[in-house]
Structures
1.
Amino acid sequence: MTHIFSPKSIDRLKGVHPDMVLVVEYALKRSSTDFSVNEGLRSLERQTELFKGGFSKTMASKHLKQSDGYGHAVDLYPYPVDMARVNKGDWRECIRFGMIAGAMFSAAKELGIPIRWGMDWDGDGQTLDHTFFDAPHFELVK
């Protein structure tokens, strides 16, 4: 089955680096699970709000406009998603984030565009060696 982005997801990719947009669009075509773009480019005000709320650990987020004028990160969620189940750590819902990650890494590899996932910040393939987990988050490695 081929999935397509809703107009809302397409709008949320505005201001995101074209390389990341390419990876996200290609991943959606390859993914066995449908997903949506929850957030791309962020304002400083939005980042401050997330940082103060403990949902982000940095004010130097790649969601913010970088020196090239683009945001370098996106947050992707399975579609549809049951956030109550996600917040409880329900593995049936959480595994879908891993499916998105698989599609993203496969697409990035084929396109030759390096990315990082918010579940494996150091890129060593281990997700349990971190203290902050951000399953929806993907960013360019530049």
Note: The chain has one domain: 7-140.
2.
Amino acid sequence: MANTSIAKTIRSNIVLFGALFANVGIAVAKFVAAALTGSSSMLSEGFHSLVDSGNQILLLYGQRRAKRPPDTRHPFGYGRELYFWAFVVAILIFALGAGISIYEGWLHIRNPEPLTDPTINYVVLGIAALLEGSSWTIAVREFRSAKGDTPWWTAIKESKDPASFIVLFEDSAALAGLAVAGIGVWASHAWEDARIDGVASIVIGVILAAVATLLAREAKGLLIGERADPRVVERVRALVAASPGITAVNHVRTIHTAPDAVFVAISADFDDALTMGEGETLVERIEAQLRAEFPDISSIYVRPEKATDAPSIR
């Protein structure tokens, strides 16, 4: 389990550091280009990259905080703190990235400023596309490796590691924003209407708002608490049901306490002929079997309980 956890952390950090270094450099270049040319869409893109840089720092901080060991106040550890910071990232994208882009675009439409030579904008956009594309490629490669044969959208919804899909969505939004900014700069000069650049800035803001809403929805589900993979739940149920001394499994309930940590609560009907000592031995055997097959199971609670026909929550 330790080796698996370390490998997952390394992969997440590669994605986050790759995105961070790309966004810092891109943000500086975009702000310089916006200052020299007066482009609203370039200014919006600069704020976009700046917010993305801050987001990667927050996710790295969240990962570090989430690795703290359990204590008396938090007996299941601090793993879900990463989910809190993922939610904060979504709010920042919406409030700062989308909000500033839309506001800047609106100002530029109301008070259009003549744009200067767009060459520097095209150069910066080209460099930004190259860097963002590299970061996006890393994020896609790592997420594809993690998802296996699972369809993309299903893998995103089922993922318990927000760092992987947040960077993927951020980089995708960044590439879309660069395309919109490029079109806005070109159209503004081609048709000699600076207001088009403001419209491009608003479009970038709308893209960011849509991405932020999607990320907030996914982060909220993780923060509230999501069950483990249904296949894991069914396998746990099958293993417990097949154990000698178990006559029925009432329910198997799971919750992720971290991306790589699952709490399992099992209610099962024990054979009435078992003695107390035999029951304890059976519980120990079940726990050992589950931990051997599922290293991500961090805590197991087995409750002897009479069989019930009540519907179970998985």
Note: Residues 1-7 have pLDDT under 50 and may be disordered.
3.
Amino acid sequence: MKAYCPEEFFSRSELDKVQKTRLATTLERAARSDFYGRRFAEMGIRPEAITSAADVARLPFTTKDDLRSAYPARMLTRPVSDMVRLHASSGTTGSATVIYYTRNDIDSWADLMARCMHMVGIRAEDTFQNMSGYGLFTGGLGIHYGAERLGCLTIPAGAGNSKRQLKLLEDFQVSVIHIIPSYALHLGTVKDEMGYTPDRLNLRVALIGAEPHTAAIRKRIEEVYGIKAYNSYGLSEMNGPGVAFECLEQSGMHIWEDAYLAEIVDPETGEQLPDGEIGELVITTLCREGMPLIRYRTKDLTRFIPGDCACGRTHRRLDRIMGRADDMIILKGVNIYPMQVEQVLMSIPEVGQNYLIVLERDGYLDQMRVKVEVKEEYFVEDMRELKSLQSRISSRLRDEILITARIDLVEQNSLPKSEGKAQRVLDLRE
């Protein structure tokens, strides 16, 4: 397949050379900011002494707390008057953080996003419907830019209003959508309820991301719509979407190493981990002008997939995000990630599209209750069958997370839905 740009198929030696050059420029830029200028001086760091990507481990981490402490503009390398855009994170795990962009930063972001979309076969002939939120959240605008940069007819539908979404899909014969995985499954249910048959829609590709999801969720989305769904990764601090993206092989997300220098580190020690080991993703921007970030701790847990990709690209591949370092649940001394629960639930055919993990206290003991939607055809009056399903889910979960959870089977579409990121954990403990 023809590349969108030459960098897409750079050799390993070409990527190493580009990273070295752009890292030096990034550190020189960062030193102009009040935040990094002071930090480098306090730690005796000379940016010019960092001469290779391997040297980056000698630099300090940047955290979300650093972004908050530098609020509103202490990380800027140029005056606010040189900035053309401001975005803020969703604040899912705390107060929002602010990122500034120059005109070149916006253009670079659009090109990276177009590169991602072109990689999975999206072309100017496609009609693209963006079902992501717009505004301070970066997900909507970033992918919107990529679609327009490719020349697609772009429909900024925004989030929610499922009946309108389906009407737009049908009326304009939309071929590509961007959608959050949990909402894709909900929209699929509405589609079936409204009697939409496959021949009424022209869909062939879905871009999914913004929330961690398992391979089983992706498979369900593909089956519901009869399409191919490609995983994406991004975060507000790194522009937004377009940091890493799956190719047609669907075997990991290529992180664009001409724009980002990525590491996987031990969340506890900060030590770099080898390919194949799960840890926290740390990223340094290589092209950001207005607000470069050095060794930013994303809190996202993943790994570098060893080996080469069959597509021929040498940009390293990230595995799907397995959760966040700060999402870990500690229950009865056991460390549990919500994605472990989802992986088990979505492997059971009777389980529907939605679930909720409820943490509660029974006397002095912490307990986990998992509310699980059951597909309509399996939610029968025969209590023996439901008890058997309940027992099977409990047993499979115990094998995975090593504790016994209480399982509540509920009717399909009875759990709360969200048009944004799905809430999977409700902590009712004090």
Note: The chain has two domains: 1-327, 328-427.
4.
Amino acid sequence: MTPNIVVVGAGWAGLGATHHLAKQGYAVTLLEAGPQPGGLVAGWRTASGRTLEAGIHGFWYPYGNIFSLVAELGIQPFTPFTESHQYSPAGLEAEAPLFQTMPPLPAPLGTFCYTRFLRLPLADRLSALPLLQAVVDFDNSPEAWQRYDGMTARELFRRYGVSQRLYQESFEPMLLVGLFAPGEQCSAAAALGMLYYFILAHQADFDVMWCRGSVGDRIFRPWVEQIQHHGGQVLAQKRVTDVRHDGDRVTAVVCGDEVFAADAVIFTVGITGLKKIVAGSPALRTRREFRDVQNLGAIDVLASRLWFDRKLTLPRPSNACFGFEPTTGWTFFDLNALQDEYRDAPGSVIEVDFYHANQFLALDDRELLPIIQEHLAGCIPEFSTALIQDSGIVRLPQAVSHFAPGSYRYLLPGTTSFSNVFMGGDWIVTDHGSWSQEKAYVTGLEAANRVIGQWGLGAPATIVPIQADEPHIQLARTLNRSVRQFHDTFLKSLQWF
């Protein structure tokens, strides 16, 4: 008998798990609560029919699994790698080159030497050197997460002597657009993991490319077609309300009046989505790890797209900004340079996305548009005289994962106390070491492999590991582990109390 697998949530993780299991001959049904596959990434339309997205998503140099996926699908959805700028109300602050084109230096010297800071003094940049000890000590192991997760990122940087100016003008802006919250609200463990993966591990890691259209159209649509070609079912507007179980095995997934029989279930929804499912599910509420998800949180996002009356001069297509709002990071993108449909548009089309945007969600569009334009003009003055001819704004409450201090204990692993229920998503614990979309996709493949391991049907997915640490980092981590082991086994035994 062919096993029936139900996957809940049609984002990167859910589509990844469904795609691989369908290829291996499983009867897979993917349930998506929204109107189309892709969840928040799927996008919307303005009243005039123009495309909107829940923020622009970058695809960084280490995204080996996603790049393998698009090659398998036979699509070419990405721009070339792009350079980026960083702005504050004082103007241009930093320029990031294409690091892969620069002479290679041992990590993290390439990032340090080749990033062009226009205002930040060298003495402040050098104050980051002691932080390398924490970078070496944080090896993504459960023990490392437990050591650093109770500390805020702000405290981490203070403890290691990072200057206040370096923190305010470099590290906190990275947190605001990487972990989507200010340092006092971010786990030090998450900060170290994110910074290492995207910036510090290898010189080229910060290089990024973008989708040449909406991710929903360019990637998810052909992906869903491939899933259906292999026999998988992808069903939209199916909101899961409960599960049925027999002891430690789930036997069905319930969507209102509909029941989907299941030999295994993979949940790949975000934190907010899972909290809603658990709150309404007597079956899931019987298990502590699902109840504990209520201790986790998520962050508000505001995504906007503006159509201007003329072409404006933007030095770089992708830009990150800080200092305009005390606890909010934001980005803006030149879609004329990035997306095919706007390349020949008569006026500039600009995507502006705000993270940790709590203070903006209650404002209506007429109140928001002057604020957004004022922020843009604070970076590039030419925006102040341009006219907005059309716009679209998407409010996304509790939309992205919040890795708050102390949250690690509540993050779910890939397995659960139900023997046939598995998890995927960017907030699921994995030892792969990746982050964001790549991490979500990897955990979806890992969940598919757990199903295959349980049922013995088909071959497991090949998961591309992250690039190994450079030799000097490997040596430093080996020495660090030896010192920790010596301390734990010998020095502690000498203590009287």
Note: The chain is about 35% helix and 20% strand.
